[in-house]
Design a protein that fits this description.
The chain is mostly helical. The chain is about 75% helix and about 10% strand. Helix 2 packs antiparallel against helix 3 (about 65-80) and helix 3 (about 65-80) runs antiparallel to helix 4. The radius of gyration is 18 Å and the shape is elongated. The model has no long low-confidence stretch (mean pLDDT about 90).
Length: about 120
């Protein structure tokens, strides 16, 4: 029976994706906190700036290996910081951006597994 593992480049890409996944989870929590604030008819305050402060390094981390996802992060930052439309539209754009990034990350994980899998032989017992 043959098992598979990732080669060196694949392992590095997966490490990057896992780190970005943690950052994206943190961003998602902040977006939902902003939505709760808006629902309670309170201003969302500095949460968009905090999200931007977290998302910009995430974009840089992705740029080398996953340029398309890094461009999506840049679009997310731009849509989030764009004025006009009110807080409800801003929350909607942030939620859509997080969902889009999460989907792209899942696709990238499966693509890395497909492209960088190496078969290894397991010795029978």
């Amino acid at each position: 029976m043959a098992a598979t593992k990732l080669d060196g480049a694949g392992a590095q890409k997966m490490k990057t994706l896992e780190e970005v996944q943690l950052t994206l989870t943190k961003i998602h929590g902040m977006v939902e906190r902003a939505a709760v604030e808006m629902k309670n008819q309170k201003p969302i305050g500095v949460l968009p700036q905090q999200i931007k402060r977290i998302a910009v390094p995430m974009q840089g981390q992705l740029k080398g290996q996953f340029g398309m996802i890094a461009d999506q992060v840049a679009g997310f930052i731009l849509a989030m910081t764009r004025g006009g439309g009110g807080e409800q539209n801003k929350i909607r754009a942030m939620r859509e951006g997080v969902a889009m990034l999460r989907q792209s990350m899942e696709f990238a994980v499966s693509k890395v597994k497909d492209q960088h899998s190496v078969a290894i032989e397991v010795a029978p017992d």
